[in-house]
Amino acid sequence: MLKRLWIAAARMMFVSACGTGGRETVATNELCLVSEPIYVSVEDDLTTETARAILRHNEMGAEMCGW
């Protein structure tokens, strides 16, 4: 679970570092190819901050990739 959060955080930083224009479209397309929603199991023990990070990741993916 923690590994998936680190990957999601790295992906968010990658996308936020891109400028506008053509590069942004390329970054979005690449993100959608390698990223997927994060699902939480009932066994997971989440902090409020972790739950918010997962929600932000999933909302971004829904907006950018149509999850």
Lay out the secondary structure:
Blueprint lengths: L1 H16 L4 H13 L13 H18 L2
Helix pairs in contact: 1-3
Task: Describe what this molecule looks like in 3D.
With 67 residues, the chain is mainly α. It has one domain (2-65). 70% of the residues lie in helices and 0% in strands. The protein is built from 3 helices and no strands. The protein is elongated, with a radius of gyration of 13 Å. 6% of the residues are buried. The mean pLDDT is 80.
Outline of the structure:
The protein is mainly α. It has helices at residues 2-17, 22-34, 48-65.
User: Helix/strand-derived class?
Assistant: mainly alpha
For the record, give the distance between the C-alpha atoms at the N and C termini, rounded to a whole number.
20 Å
Unreliable runs, pLDDT <50, ≥5 residues?
none
What is the molecular shape? elongated
| Beta fraction | under 5%
Number of domains: 1
Q: Describe the biggest sheet?
A: none
Percent helix, as a range, is over 70%
- The overall strand count is 0
Q: Please tell me the overall pLDDT.
A: 80
Helical segment count: 3
What integer value in Å does the Rg equal? 13 Å
Key features of this structure:
67 residues; mainly alpha; 3 helices; elongated
